[in-house]
Amino acid sequence: MSQYENVTVIKKANLYFDGKVSSRTVLFADGTKKTLGIMLPGEYEFGTDAKEIMEILAGDLKVLLPGESEWISISGEGEFTVPANSKFKLQVASITDYACSYIQE
Amino acid sequence: MSQYENVTVIKKANLYFDGKVSSRTVLFADGTKKTLGIMLPGEYEFGTDAKEIMEILAGDLKVLLPGESEWISISGEGEFTVPANSKFKLQVASITDYACSYIQE
């Protein structure tokens, strides 16, 4: 799926880490939410509320999921899931384009 | 209007200047197009195809429109229009969030 149809987009961006990470919120008719974001090179730690499915559309990064000691490498496209109410770390080596789905359980 | 409803969003980002400028494309039912973008601090020159109406949602920047010798300053919210098939320059002093409308004439 290369595009989201019949959605609502919030105009204002979400900005993190001095804008090195930014995203736009997309709302779906079924009440679900995704964000489309860009991460510039850097090291970041994020916390989740809902469970998150991170789809990497393009990029080069390493991910440390909660409770793990091994970093996962993603080059190009990839996907990882982060449990609700947890923290994960990212080492972004080149500009990374992502779509994040928030899963209410 | 704080959000765009009943639209299609292209998932993949548009990236310029090593990702210091990025945007997402939003398509409307009437066939028109806008982009929602972020510009990090820096100096940029852009060219237009269609006429562009740039709505600054937040930021701090100066704009040099084609044929002008005076820079326009925008802090916070603002708007400027760029003719089709022309070039304009930007000096972005702090992270700038924008919505750009492409006007076919």
UniProtKB/TrEMBL annotation, chains A, B:
The protein's Enzyme Commission number: 2.4.2.1, 2.4.2.2
EC top class, as a word: transferase
One Pfam family in the UniProt entry: Ppnp
Swiss-Prot/TrEMBL catalytic activity: uridine + phosphate = alpha-D-ribose 1-phosphate + uracil; cytidine + phosphate = cytosine + alpha-D-ribose 1-phosphate; thymidine + phosphate = 2-deoxy-alpha-D-ribose 1-phosphate + thymine; guanosine + phosphate = alpha-D-ribose 1-phosphate + guanine
Keywords, ordered alphabetically: Glycosyltransferase, Transferase
Gene3D superfamilies: Jelly Rolls (2.60.120.10)
Coiled coil feature spans: none
The keyword Iron is assigned to this record: no
SUPFAM superfamilies: RmlC-like cupins (SSF51182)
Alphabetical list of InterPro entries matching this protein: Ppnp, RmlC-like_jellyroll, RmlC_Cupin_sf
Keyword flag Transferase: yes
Family membership noted in the UniProt record: Belongs to the nucleoside phosphorylase PpnP family.
Function according to Swiss-Prot or TrEMBL: Catalyzes the phosphorolysis of diverse nucleosides, yielding D-ribose 1-phosphate and the respective free bases. Can use uridine, adenosine, guanosine, cytidine, thymidine, inosine and xanthosine as substrates. Also catalyzes the reverse reactions.
Protein name (Swiss-Prot/TrEMBL): Pyrimidine/purine nucleoside phosphorylase
Highest classification ranks of the organism: Bacteria, Bacillati, Bacillota, Bacilli, Bacillales
